[in-house]
# Entry
Amino acid sequence: MKVVLAFALFFCASPVFAGESRWIDTSYDSFLSHDLRESVSHYGEYPLFWWNHIVLEPSAESGQTEVIARQICASLSESRAIARTPCHAKALQLVAESWIADTPRRKPFPAATFDRQWQSALAKAALPIPREILEWLRRDPLNELDGLRLRHQSHGAGGFAQKDGLLFDPPTGRILIPVQFSHPPAESEKTALAMKVMDQLCLKTQCGGLHLIGPHAGTLENEMRIRADLNTVSVTGTAGLLLVVAFLLYTRRARLLLLFPLLGVGIALAAALTLAVFGRIHAITLSFGPALIGLALDYGVHAAFLDPKCRATWRSNFMALITSLVVMVLMAFSSVPLIRQMMFFATTGLIITYFLFHFVMRRSPQTFQLSPLLLAPRPSRPLGALAIALSAATLLLVFTPLRLDLKQMNFQSATTEDLNAWWMNRQGSETPFTLSEEKMEKAYAAKAWALTYGVRYEGPARDLPEPKVQERNRSTWKGFCTGDDFYRSELAERFFPPFQNLVCGERTGVPAYLADFYHGGRWLNVLFAANDAQAAAIRQHFPEAQSPREMIRRFPQTFARELKWMLPTALILALAFLGFYYRSLTPALLASLPFFSGTGLFALMTLLLDLPVNFISLLGLLLVFGFSIDYGIFAVDHFRSGEKEGHGMWSALSFCAITTMAGFAPLAFGQHPVLNSLGHALLWGSVGTAIGAFWGIPFGYRWVRNCWP
Amino acid sequence: MSNVWIFSLWLVVSTAWAAEPPVDLDRALRKYQNVKHLHVQFEQTKKLKDLDFEIHSRGELDLAPNRMTWRIHSPSPLSVEWKDGEARIGDKASVPEKYRSEMGQLLSWLRFDASALARDYAIQRPSPTSFTFSPKKAGGIFKSMQLTLNARGFAETVELTEVSDDRMILKFTHPRITYQE
# Structure
């Protein structure tokens, strides 16, 4: 039920996933601590990282692949979603024009050779050439575009052979078409439309197969997978929800549904408070947070099946709330902003909902009071022993490697994985380091340093000399631009005005050929380390420089460091609270038994099914911790009360456990690693919790009573 | 039945017409048959219609079975070499695909191979010494071409009208030909 609610909210949030919203944050930045955030933002914001590659599989007919590639290039140059592709002149027009226009900034006026170059351009124009090429000669008599062409060739070719903007891989026969999207990777709806056009082009040209690789492709593939998985989950979840409602209606316990509006109010207030504190709320907080707040339903169901007025019931509920809050409050100290926000949202939501339930249910108990279902688990020694054995299996987690890297949250189909491996193999092993600077002076310093150390540099300083040199160069063009007699000829006035208009015109803003390196007043510089020594030198000279590989490595390091103290502290604190509550350690351990049996079953299944234990599994186990300790407290309190049957408590527990399991099970069949990991942690965690609560606690309680009557 | 025969006969004849050059073109261009090497000087005027501007150039053309060189001396030295399907302008290793195919169209035309011309162009003979060629397939750079032969049977002028209505007028002089044995 909780999960259905969570995903209902996820769907409400999903339309804003694709685009920017005032309230909803969809960035990846929130995954990262403050020091990593700035560097990661480069990847989404700077157009340099909007380059992707279309991979064309070889066609059956030899030589046809290139023809098809050229046709696709021509069609893509018409697409609004594509900003640039080096395989089609039209798509490069803006860049080329801005490059020519900036000639006076790059070079002094070539007075000695100007006439010769001018005549040489005219000789080319005399050739039988298409008019569009002739027009380029009119714009570029100094042949400046050759420099731009070389610049493009040195960028991104890796181990591929280049020809007219296409990349060739002779061993596989594949052709790559580099394309730069005109939108950031997060706007996957636009990417999806462009992909549709590409697929149609492939169909039309009878290509041998077409794939897209790169940041846009990866984001789209992940989102499509999540959507496909969630469609399945939402269908089964809705069916489950309808079954629960039908069951409640059939057994005349529909008043339990009254808890949902109260839960909704709790979630809404928590969201409002989160917005007030954080300014924006992350979509992942909105997806998983409600499930955490949904834990409060356990308190309401527990009170409804027992006695909403009874102080003892609410005392158990309060203790269950406290133990859930212990973990959440501790995790709110994480350096990962997303976890901080999610824990704030969950903590406030849980507290608000608890007090709403407490206030409303105690005020009008008759509205919520339900008759029990006459359920009680039959005592079973084997199942009891199984629960204890599962608890011991928790130790397996200590020996299971924690995979906390960001790749664990990334879905890649088998084809994408193969293509990426092939691409990386061809690209070589240069490690890029990025530097984002407000001032161009630092870009020149980085370029000068790179030159000294033999490090490859990409950035604005590569093509533009320092301002004083620019000024000096420009001053030499004044005579040409003001129309000296020497250049006032029929040729200049009739044939070459496009060149004069470009180089002598007013220029404002960032030149198009440098747009890849510019965003929001900052310039991006990239240093490529060819070996470890260069990487060490970059790190030493530019401590603020970041490399994607290092960022991917640092996220798990940060998170693992936190987990090392958070998890044991949370467990010890929860046990301490329980010990204080029961004034004895034995019931405290018994109450925590469902958590251990749940975690133990999950640990066992990770070994049996070769499942990863990652960041998302840990979030799942946090949820398991929340509800399993609740079940433990409810069951132990029942035994300690001396009541014999306990139908009310077992009804509440059965209802909560069955809806939790039914809700989480479909997630385990999802193919996206996030949903799959969450699903497995919650499914096995909740099954193990049920075994621990229904059979482990009665077994343990009897054993303790027999040993220490 | 007779209709079927006539139709079949027409099919055979029309196919043969399509493959074979008209006898008069074949005869007119006999100086260009079995050429081993052709060298000719040219003067060219390119008229850019919308700019009302003319580019004058002169140079020479060298033709061999697998190679062709278009060398401009004025306004500035520049050579275009076409060898085994690859084009090279000046010292550049290769030229863009589109440029290559357009150049190729003209250069293969300048071989004056009567069979190839008959295959690719619709041919008219407005006067005893001139021929007009219109490409059978659309999509090329040229809309039409006119060839005028001199009294000795060598190409004297070639006038090319581009799709953009720009015109190139080439005047050839001093032809030197060696023939295959």
